[in-house]
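## retry 2 of 3
previous attempt timed out at serialization; input unchanged, resubmitting
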Amino acid sequence: MFHSVLLTFSLLLTGGFAPLETGLQTLAADDLQGLIRKFESERSLKAHERFTTLQKISEIETRESSEFLAKVIRDPKEETSMVESAIRMVSVHENGVGLEAIFEKGLVQLPERSHWVIRDCWDRDLNDEEVQYLVKTGLGLVSRLPIPAQSVALKIARKIEDPEAGKALLKLLGNRRIPANNQVPIVEMIRRNRVDGATKKLAKMFKIDDPDLQKEILLALRDLEAQDQSKTFHKALKSPHWPVRVVAADIFGATRDPEVIRSLTPLLRDNFLEVQLAATHALRQIGGREVVEALIKDFSRFEGRVLDDVSDTLLWLTGEDFGTSKVSWEAWWQSKGKDAEIRGISRDEFDQIREESRNNTTGTYYGLRVISKFVTFIVDISGSMEEPYEVDSIKLPGGRKGKRGGTGVAEEEEASEGGKKKEVLPKIEVARRELVRVLDGIPEGTQFNIIPFESSFTPWRPALVQMDEDVRLQSIEFVKQLNPRGMTNVFDTLASALEDPEVNTIYFLSDGAPTMGKITEPQGILDRIREMNAERKVKIHTIGFHLDPGAASLMRRLAEENHGDFVEK
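## retry succeeded, writing output
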């Protein structure tokens, strides 16, 4: 026995036996060939009876097994269900064989109803071989595909981050076989990969009457620094499509060039609120005396959400806070404004002034103005909202029977050193009282909704509802019944609120960091909400109760990046 072991060891050292790895590869190759023969012999069987053999082939995960799966995908006589199975299997192999088969045959031969399988399988980052294939060959095939298949191919290709893709992308740009909706991802890739030599063709394509394409062209011209395309940007300000006008206003604002003020001020009278807001924000970025004068001159025209943002803009530019008072702004301009230094203020200065204003303002929600006519209140009812919280006594409207004008609750209150009465209440009770107080004062005709959230969210109504006396009583009763439970789903709740096309102002109250939802990582939430809100420009105010530093940072940035204010309690 001992001599046999020595002999075996000696043969290994001298090459008498194949190395272990090579031996396993040989076994795998033998197994693969056997499985392929077995699969071919089963062609008379139904697809579900052949699935097991195909699965075993895929599990070997050699290039040869990938190529056989690709052969199945390319076979026009193969059953659709079997092709779909081969696509799922080869998509997890670490090579580009499967993607090559998809672009060259799969997307042509598969029925459109099967395209979701491809989208689902390549909803991931591309490996190096796949990127190289797309850059050298795959992108060049896009124009030959059926139009629905083009969309799938381009969705996969959008993940490319490679400067070598430029030549292929330029050949696709403006190709007549590719319709406008499929040109959008091509332009986006050209913008993201900063492809040289595209600006003139992009400007020519702006004539195509498709708002999504026009928006992407404007962003591409901006990022490619196409300074010779000023006419295209000015043309965009007069586009018949409001989203295009919004993007154009954003771009003009980012230039901070006083020369464009006269081009932007007409948009303050636009028929679409989103355009008015975009113009207001753009003028804020540019700043200066001419902007302040124009806003004060037209102040009486503004109302609701636009009035709110114009008031904020004047504060940003002048350091003065006269809120929404036309008389006060005009008086200041006549007496001091014309000689005042219009330098603009910092974020810290703005927050400090607003904090002082909140402490001296009544008829607000946590010191935040409620003047928009299209409002959603989001309130955290997760389990942590049961925790105790000390607060100045809040009088509930409606007394004990829910009638307006009642007294509120205060028998067990104790006076604090400053003379104000204090209560220690569960945080949810504090939130309920403040929201009830605001609902009691909202003018009739205001469109509003309430969304309590925890692990999930359940809106009070499917969409915004108009305030009247019956609705007021119903909403107050709904708020009084809110009780804590579950975890904290920030992203899904905010995303759902933004899906309502009418809402333009959100008040978001929470006491903790996100612990549930499609996205829980703070930066991911910020990026996605900012992307969703880029055109709509919904104002998101945030109110935080006893937040830890991480949650406070998220809530502050959610407000700052979405035109709102952050209030920490």
